[in-house]
C-alpha cells in the first residue's frame, strides 16, 4: 500500500450556484444541473447547467443562422472581435481565475495567469496570415487557393487548462469565419461559462455558444448533422469515440490527445539547469499537462547527480489548496484521476527493485493531494512508464547507449512531444529529430508559441491546432481558376 495520510472530511455544503450558458447571444439557465467539485476538498461547491438536447439544438441552430453573415465579415473585423474577447478576458481575469482555482485546483496566481495567457494566445493567433496562395498567372489562366470556412465548429475541451484550450478554439474558429458551439469538461465548466457571460455583448448573437453538460452532450455534439467540424482535446479513449461518431457525417476532425513524453539527458548536460527545467516541465499543473515530461532517461554517468538535483527541487514544491498563497502545486483535479495515480504509486511500492526517491504520499479525506514523487528502478513495461500517468510522478530510467535510449523513448503508442538535454545543441537536435513525436525540444520542454503548429503522432492525435497549419484545418481548401481576358 502507498503511504497515506488520512484527513477529516469537511461537512457537505452545496450552495445553489448555477452559471448560465451562452446561447444565441443570451445567458440561458439550465433545466437540469451537474455538481462541480472543489478538488481541494473533494466536495461539491457549485452547480452548472446540464444542457438538454433541445438546448444544444438551439445553440447549433443559432450558430448555423449566424454563419453566413459571419463568414462574409471581412477578416479585419473578425480579428477585431477576437481582440475584444481577449480584452474582456484580461478585464475579468481575477474573477475567472478564482472560479478556475475553485473547480480545477491550481494555485490562484496560475489560474489568473492562465486567463491572461489565453488572451495573449488569442491575439497571437489572429495575427497570423491565412490569406490564399497564387499558384499560377501565366497570361492564359489565373489559379489560386483560397480557404473557405466550414460552418459550425463543435469544440470540446478538457479539465486541465480549460480556459486556454477553450479560447484557442474560439480564436481559430472565429478568425477563419466559422461559428462555434463549445462544451467544457463537466469537471471544470464554471470558468468557461463565466467567459461566455463576459463576452456575450461583444460577439454577434449565435457566433459563439457555450453549453455545459456530461457525456451525453459530448456525444450529441460529435454526431450532430449540422456541425461541420469537431475540435477535441482530451483522452485517447474519448478521442477514438469522437472520431467514430464524427465519421457518420464526414465531419472534419482535429484530435489533440494524450502523451507519454520522454526526456533524454546526455552525460555532458548542465546538471542544475537540466534538473530545474525537467522538474518544472514534469510537475507543471500537478503533472496534468498533455505534453509534460512523463519519462526521464538519464545516462548512467550522471544518474546519481541528476536524481539528487531533481529530488532537491521536487522537495521545494509546496502542495496545498489553490487559494493558499503558500501553495505552489494544487491537487489532482478529480477523484477518478486521483485514484489512478494513487494506484500507480501502490504498484511501485509493490515492485521489487523500485524505489520512491522522494514524495509519493497520498493525502486522503481532505482533497485529492499527492506529494510529487520521483521513482527509480522500474522496467520499461511497468504501468507508470508505459502509460500516461497525468499526475505528479516522474519515473526515471537509466541508459548507457544513446541508440538504446532513442529506441526506448520511441517504444510507445504515444507521440506528442519529447526533449533532449545537453550542452551540445547540434547533437541534441540530431537526437530530437529522431524522436517520433509532433513537437521536440532541446534543453526545454513545453510551451510552443502560437505560430507553431501543435499536435501528435501515433495515438497522440490527428491534425494540428495553432500556427497557420492548425488555423487552416478550420477551413476547406478551394482552388479557383479563371481565364485571363
Report on the architecture of this protein.
The protein has 485 residues and is an alpha/beta fold. It folds into 2 domains: 12-257 and 460-480, Aldehyde Dehydrogenase, Chain A, domain 1 (3-Layer(aba) Sandwich), CATH 3.40.605; 261-449, Aldehyde Dehydrogenase, Chain A, domain 2 (3-Layer(aba) Sandwich). It contains 15 helices and 23 strands. It has helices at residues 53-72, 75-91, 93-104, 108-125, 162-175, 190-199, 215-223, 236-247, 271-283, 303-315, 335-349, 383-386, 402-410, 425-432, 467-472; strands at 4-6, 21-23, 26-28, 33-38, 43-49, 133-137, 141-149, 152-156, 179-183, 208-210, 229-233, 252-256, 261-265, 293-299, 355-358, 362-364, 369-370, 373-376, 393-399, 417-421, 439-442, 461-462, 475-483. The protein has a 7-stranded mixed β-sheet with strand order 15-18-19-14-13-20-21, with helices on both faces. A hairpin with a 4-residue loop joins strand 4 (33-38) and strand 5 (43-49). Helix 2 runs antiparallel to helix 4 (108-125) and helix 4 packs parallel to helix 5. The longest helix is centred in the first third of the chain and has 20 residues, at 53-72. The protein starts with a strand and ends with a strand. Residues 9-16 have low confidence and may be disordered.
Short description, anyone?
Helix content is 37%, strand content 23%.
Distance between the termini: 81 Å
Can you list the strand order of the major beta sheet? 15-18-19-14-13-20-21
The CATH class of the largest domain: Alpha Beta
Give helix % range. Answer: 25-40%
How many strands, what sense, and barrel or not for the largest sheet? Answer: 7 strands, mixed
- The name CATH uses for the topology of the largest domain is Aldehyde Dehydrogenase, Chain A, domain 1
CATH-level-2 architecture of the largest domain: 3-Layer(aba) Sandwich
Average pLDDT confidence is: 95
Uncertain runs? 9-16
Counted by DSSP, the helix tally is: 15
Structural class: alpha/beta
Number of domains: 2
Strand residue percentage: 15-25%
The overall strand count is 23
Backbone CA Rg: 23 Å
Amino acid at each position: 500500500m502507498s503511504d497515506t495520510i488520512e484527513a477529516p472530511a469537511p461537512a457537505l455544503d452545496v450552495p445553489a450556484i448555477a452559471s448560465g450558458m451562452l446561447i444565441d447571444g443570451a445567458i440561458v439557465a439550465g433545466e437540469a444541473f451537474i455538481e462541480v467539485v472543489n478538488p481541494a476538498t473533494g466536495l461539491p461547491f457549485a452547480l452548472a447547467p446540464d444542457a438538454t438536447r433541445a438546448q444544444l439544438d438551439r445553440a447549433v441552430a443559432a450558430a448555423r443562422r449566424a454563419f453566413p453573415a459571419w463568414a462574409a465579415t471581412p477578416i479585419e473585423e473578425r480579428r477585431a472581435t477576437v481582440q475584444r474577447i481577449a480584452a474582456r478576458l484580461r478585464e475579468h481575469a481575477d474573477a475567472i481565475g478564482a472560479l478556475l482555482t475553485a473547480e480545477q485546483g491550481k494555485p490562484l496566481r496560475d489560474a489568473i495567469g492562465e486567463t491572461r495567457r489565453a488572451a495573449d494566445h488569442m491575439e497571437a493567433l489572429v495575427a497570423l496570415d491565412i490569406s490564399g496562395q497564387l499558384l499560377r498567372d501565366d497570361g492564359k489562366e489565373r489559379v489560386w487557393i483560397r480557404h473557405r470556412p466550414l460552418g459550425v465548429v463543435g469544440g470540446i475541451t478538457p479539465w486541465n487548462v480549460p480556459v486556454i484550450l477553450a479560447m484557442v478554439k474560439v480564436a481559430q474558429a472565429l478568425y477563419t469565419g466559422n461559428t462555434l458551439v463549445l462544451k467544457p469538461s463537466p469537471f471544470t465548466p464554471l470558468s468557461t461559462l463565466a467567459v461566455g457571460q463576459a463576452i456575450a455583448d461583444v460577439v454577434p448573437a449565435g457566433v459563439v455558444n457555450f453549453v455545459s453538460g456530461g457525456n451525453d452532450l459530448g456525444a450529441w455534439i460529435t454526431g450532430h448533422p449540422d456541425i461541420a467540424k469537431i475540435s477535441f482535446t482530451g483522452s485517447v479513449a474519448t478521442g477514438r469515440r469522437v472520431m467514430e461518431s464524427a465519421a457518420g457525417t464526414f465531419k472534419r476532425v482535429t484530435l489533440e490527445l494524450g502523451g507519454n513524453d520522454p526526456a533524454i539527458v546526455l552525460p555532458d548536460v548542465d546538471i542544475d539547469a537540466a534538473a530545474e527545467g525537467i522538474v518544472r516541465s514534469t510537475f507543471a499543473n500537478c503533472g496534468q499537462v498533455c505534453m509534460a515530461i512523463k519519462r526521464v532517461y538519464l545516462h548512467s554517468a550522471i544518474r546519481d547527480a541528476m536524481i539528487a538535483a531533481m529530488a532537491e527541487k521536487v522537495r521545494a514544491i509546496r502542495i496545498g489548496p489553490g487559494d493558499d498563497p503558500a501553495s505552489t502545486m494544487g491537487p489532482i483535479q478529480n477523484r477518478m484521476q486521483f485514484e489512478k495515480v494513487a494506484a500507480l504509486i501502490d504498484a511501485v511500492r509493490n515492485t521489487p527493485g523500485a524505489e520512491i526517491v522522494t514524495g509519493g504520499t497520498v493525502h486522503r479525506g481532505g482533497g485529492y493531494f499527492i506529494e510529487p514523487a520521483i521513482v527509480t528502478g522500474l522496467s520499461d513495461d511497468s504501468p507508470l512508464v508505459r502509460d500516461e500517468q497525468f499526475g505528479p510522478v516522474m519515473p526515471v530510467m537509466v541508459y548507457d547507449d544513446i541508440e538504446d535510449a532513442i529506441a526506448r523513448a520511441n517504444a510507445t503508442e504515444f507521440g506528442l512531444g519529447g526533449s533532449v538535454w545537453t550542452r551540445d545543441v547540434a547533437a541534441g537536435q540530431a537526437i530530437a529529430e529522431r524522436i517520433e513525436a509532433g513537437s521536440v525540444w532541446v534543453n526545454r520542454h513545453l510551451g510552443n508559441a502560437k505560430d507553431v503548429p501543435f499536435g501528435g503522432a501515433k495515438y497522440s492525435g490527428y491534425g494540428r491546432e495553432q500556427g497557420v497549419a492548425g488555423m487552416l484545418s478550420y477551413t476547406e481548401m478551394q482552388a479557383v481558376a479563371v481565364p485571363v481576358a
